[in-house]
Amino acid sequence: MKHTFWDFLSLISDGKAHAEADLLTQLAVDADTLRAWLMRAQQELAIPYTHLNQVIQLTRPMCVLSEARFANVVLDPALSLQVLDECTSTNTLLFQRAKEIGHAVHGSVLVTNQQTQGRGRQGRSWYSAIGGCLPISLAWTFDQKQAQLSHIPLLVALACHRVLTKLHVPCQIKWPNDIMAGEAKMGGILVESMPTEQGSIVVIGVGLNLIAPYLPQQKTLGLWDVQPSLEADQVVSLYLNELAAILTEFSQHGAQSFMPEYMLAHRDQNKEVELWANQTLVHQGVVQGIAEDGALLLQTSEGLERIHSGEVSLRRPQRKLLLLDAGNSQLKWTTVEKGKFTHHDHAPYRDLSALATFMAAHPDVHEVIGCAVCGTYKRSQVEALIPFPIKWLSSQRHAMGVYNHYQNPQEHGSDRWFNILGSRVFTQNSVIVASCGTAITIDALTHNNHYLGGSIMPGFNLMREAMSKRTANLNRQLGRPYAFATSTPNAMASGIMDAAVGAILGAYQRLKAREGADHPVDIIITGGSASRVLEHVHTHYALPVMPKVVENLVFHGLHNWIEHS
Questions:
Q1: What is the pTM of this model?
Q2: Of 108, 115, 132, 214, which one is least surrounded by beta carbons within 10 A?
Q3: Is the distance from CB of 422 to CB of 334 less than 8 angstroms?
Q4: Could you give phi then psi for residue 489, rounded to 5 degrees?
Q5: Within this chain, do residues 536 and 437 fall inside the same structural domain, yes or no?
Q6: What is the C-alpha R_g of the chain?
Q7: Which residues sit opposite 549 in a β-bridge?
Q8: Which domain holds residue 256?
């Protein structure tokens, strides 16, 4: 038997360490083939792994399905399952098969490991992370005409809800058919149908996240984030059997018996929501229930509206947030309303009266979230002035699809971590993030979201203080940096600036060498001295890429984390 790339991925998918020699023996391939597979895993599929001392290990487990994994699984007799290593779209392939063979397609199931052209509702693309998503498509035939099948998306969502509840994964349904954990999406559904002489053929596509992907406009959650021990083949088989039973009952008796259960699982029942179309708010009101045809019943100020799923996107109203960045020397804060930063301010810890004044003017803050690198005393000063509980966030091993390679994330400055998460608002490329404050931190993020760590050095004032205290003739104010300074104050400023810029440039060159020619590397600079650094770079350096200055990058990182957590 000739082994394939997907057999290789299946062997290492457990996330454990695998000796290269053992893999060569198990797969019966030569070293060149194994290296080519590793290259494909990294460059084409962006699968994170380490390869050190002839040992290969994924940085996290992944799911690789095969038909052998379903050999001992009991499926409903009506179902016929096929596993594809890779394809364009399981729904597209199954829909094409339905066109070719008609009602004989009944019960056909396609599952794949890699889906390159997945689709969602309203013509959106559906992102399927390799090894982190379960794309499943089922074809089912009905005697009823298409107009009588409007409840199908709701019933599919109910099948998912039943199965995940059995597996102890708490979830709700967001009308009509998203699987949610609060604001985070765990799965989505696409239902497509065609008329036939006998009735209708429906192709039902479901994508369930095992690992939460990073999607810029959507919070996500993976099943493995909640239940790490779940087996993918178990999830697939339970879902298919549950759905087959529901569809069979629906064919015979209709949907009404399922509606009370759907309403209990409906996340937004009796809640205030907003309905958007083409990025425009079109309705706002309280959800009253589901109509007999599956439409959403929304009580608005103008009366009861019936909303059909193809028209709109449903969202919960956004509340006012207060974000805090508790640095070493000062506290900075901003409010966030409807996704926008609205009111900024800052104050030194020796006088936080501006914070007290700010809180008195903003009693409608809904939630307070921050990160802190200051000591516990300064943090307690802040807490005493804010009449709401503060959620202080620290560095994490992974978030938003970014994997943190710091040996101990708890020792990692939370401002550095949220600067990294904030950088993804501005670039999806590899990036060097330099924060120029009391200390200067320089950190590296790869194109496939590996945070590699970085360096810490004294900031501008600390370097000046060190020289003034340790040398007899350098206790003076700094001048301006020049290419070749001709006075001592200017020479001090030039040396300090060259140290900072040189460190940033060195990090850029190292990351560029690691990433290769195919992956551009950007530079983002933040912090109080960022504009001075950029001016010096403009004047005295010829960098291959011009740095971008972003004020308050930590706030972008905090907000990005909130939007996706």
A1: 0.65
A2: 214
A3: no
A4: -60, -40
A5: yes
A6: 28
A7: 525
A8: 67-265
